[in-house]
Amino acid sequence: MIVEAHTGAGPDLQSVRAAIQFAKKGEKLNAKDGFHVPRGRRLISPRNPAQKAYLKLLKGAASDLVFGVGPAGTGKTFLAVCYGASLLAERKIDKLIIARPAVEAGEHLGFLPGDMAEKIDPYMLPVWDALNEALGQESVLKRRAEGRIEVAPLAFMRGRTLSHAFVILDEAQNATIGQMQMVLTRLGEGSRMIVTGDPSQSDLPSGQPSGLSHALDILDGVKGVSFARFTQKDVVRHALVARIVAAYEAAGRTG
User: Which of 129, 213, 221, 249 is the most buried (most CB within 10 A)?
Assistant: First the structure.
């Protein structure tokens, strides 16, 4: 978790670990490096220098397209969703739009029972968790009913122009090259897009290239596009998770 509540209590273990991370890099953490979420006006602060650099890109105006790339557990999705929720609450954007490729369903959600919400929500649980953390469940449901929060499979972005919105493409390693091109070209006036994923964890069929890896290659150096990169050292979940990620990375290099 990357939430700091100003309760007057002493620093927790995560805060201590964060201070150590910044000290190792010779950096300091200031309140301006984070942002407040509406629920309880809590401060979201970066837990390591990589998150600090990522948040700087999210909060800055230099890039309308930001890639957050690295292993699970580094806070890529959580930070992007919470920051987008804060912009929505402050009415700096009209909509918060979050999409994921529904690879598990082959994007053929019509084969699943129920209405659209019932079909897509199982694939979006991490997103809903972050939204509820930032806004509270009642506020999320209200804004969803108003159409100000959209959470949908990537396929539902086709044919749209996304204007005055904060758009997040999560688990982007599961997008094909065609899907990635489609969603990146949906960006409309007054909008920004955040693309998160881990190129090493694609669930696409064997031999099918990831749209995320392709985009990282061809968009490097393009004006208005920025990249934040995370490694297993930046994992902020249970300490064991970082060691597990490192073990799998080592196995991949030697396998």
Answer: 213
Mean pLDDT over the full length of the chain: 84
Domain boundaries, the chain: 49-254
Q: Tokens 């396929």 sit at which residue?
A: 155
Nearest of 181, 130, 132, 174 to residue 153 by alpha carbon: 174
The CATH code belonging to domain 49-254 is 3.40.50.300
Instruction: Quote the CA–CA distance of 49 and 184 in Å, as a whole number.
Output: 28
Element (H, E) at 119: helix 116-120
Phi, psi (deg, nearest 5) at residue 228: -115, 125
pTM for the structure as a whole? 0.83
Q: How confident is the model at residue 99 (pLDDT cuts 50, 70, 90)?
A: very high
Neighbour count for residue 156 (Cβ, 10 Å): 17
Residue among 168, 194, 242 at smallest CA distance from 54: 194
Distance of CA 89 to the CA centre of its chain: 18
